[in-house]
């Protein structure tokens, strides 16, 4: 095969992440089969995605509209689920919904409406996570997402919009701090959402560095990039 060393390195990365997920789930008394690992392929070429597909990966995460659309077009023949995990500029949301099956970063009514338009254009359904801001009060660094009091309005918008399905909440832990308290907060927000929207039980949390903490706090979806693919090439 063209790229045997790369295939082996990806296979090793996947095995390692699978083992971490299984171990964390088991020690939390949860079923590992109910946790979805989204492999985050941003900045990596479509050749890597093909290798990952051959190794059994079906859930791929991208964070830029244009890059994700390009790979989705290039790999259109494969049975893949595309997850959009990046911050969405509302003028790009329609485009994102034309290829993404799942959007983890819905953070406004306006984005929800535009995703609905895009979903209708392709006569499909976009599964939506509402992104919750997990930064401590008063910090300047913002990793995106809504404050918890703004969630209900966006949730109701998604529930009533054509072509959208509300599946749960997503969070990105603040840099340089223990992620566990943030993920527990996200779990609290999730419980409150589920009271009003019983179908929206999914929780997207956890990246390469903190898969375990996220699973202990109840994550159903982890988003893992560098632990599978290696350190990302610098952004262009
Ligand atoms: C890049 C990214 C990830 C994956 O990060 P790694 O540390 O490489 O696992 C997960 N979630 C979001 C929102 C990202 O942008």
What do you see in this structure?
By secondary structure, the protein is α/β, with parallel strands linked by helices. It has a single domain, classed as Alanine racemase (TIM Barrel). It is built from nine helices and eight strands. It has an eight-stranded parallel β-sheet. Helix 7 links the parallel strand 6 and strand 7 (202-204). Helix 3 (65-74) packs parallel to helix 4 and helix 4 packs across helix 5. The chain is globular. Pyridoxal-5'-phosphate (PLP) is lined by residues 40, 42, 63, 85-86, 172, 207-209, 223-227.
Descriptors:
236 residues, alpha/beta, TIM Barrel, eight-stranded parallel beta sheet, 43% helix, 17% strand, globular, binds pyridoxal-5'-phosphate
The gist of it:
The protein has 236 residues and is α/β, with parallel strands linked by helices. It has nine helices and eight strands. The chain has one domain: Alpha-Beta Barrel (TIM Barrel), CATH 3.20.20.10.
Could you give the topology of this structure?
Blueprint: H1 4-27, E1 36-40, H2 46-54, E2 59-62, H3 65-74, E3 81-84, H4 93-99, E4 102-106, H5 109-121, E5 126-132, H6 151-160, E6 164-171, H7 179-196, E7 202-204, H8 211-216, E8 221-224, H9 226-229
Parallel strand pairs: 1-2, 1-8, 2-3, 3-4, 4-5, 5-6, 6-7
Helix pairs in contact: 3-4, 4-5, 5-6
Bound molecules: pyridoxal-5'-phosphate.
Pyridoxal-5'-phosphate binds at residues 40, 42, 63, 85-86, 172, 207-209, 223-227.
């Amino acid at each position: 095969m063209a790229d045997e060393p790369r295939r082996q390195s990806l296979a090793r990365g996947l095995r390692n992440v699978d083992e971490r997920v299984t171990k964390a789930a088991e020690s939390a008394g949860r079923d590992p089969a109910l946790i979805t690992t989204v492999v985050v392929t941003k900045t990596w070429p479509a050749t890597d995605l093909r290798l990952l597909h051959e190794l059994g990966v079906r859930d791929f995460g991208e964070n830029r509209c244009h890059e994700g659309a390009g790979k989705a077009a290039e790999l259109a023949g494969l049975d893949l689920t595309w997850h959009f995990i990046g911050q969405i500029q509302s003028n790009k949301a329609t485009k994102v919904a034309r290829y993404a099956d799942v959007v983890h970063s819905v953070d406004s009514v306006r984005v929800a409406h535009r995703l609905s338009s895009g979903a209708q254009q392709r006569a499909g359904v976009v599964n939506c996570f509402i992104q919750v801001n997990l930064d401590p009060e008063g910090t300047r660094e913002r990793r995106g997402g809504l404050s918890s009091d703004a969630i209900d309005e966006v949730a109701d918008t998604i529930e009533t919009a054509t072509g959208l399905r509300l599946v749960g909440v997503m969070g990105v832990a603040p840099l340089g701090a223990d992620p566990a308290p943030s993920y527990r907060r996200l779990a609290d927000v999730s419980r409150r959402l589920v009271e009003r929207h019983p179908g929206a039980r999914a929780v997207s949390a956890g990246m390469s560095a903190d898969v375990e903490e996220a699973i202990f706090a109840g994550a159903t979806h982890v988003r893992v990039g560098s632990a599978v693919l290696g350190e990302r090439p610098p952004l262009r």
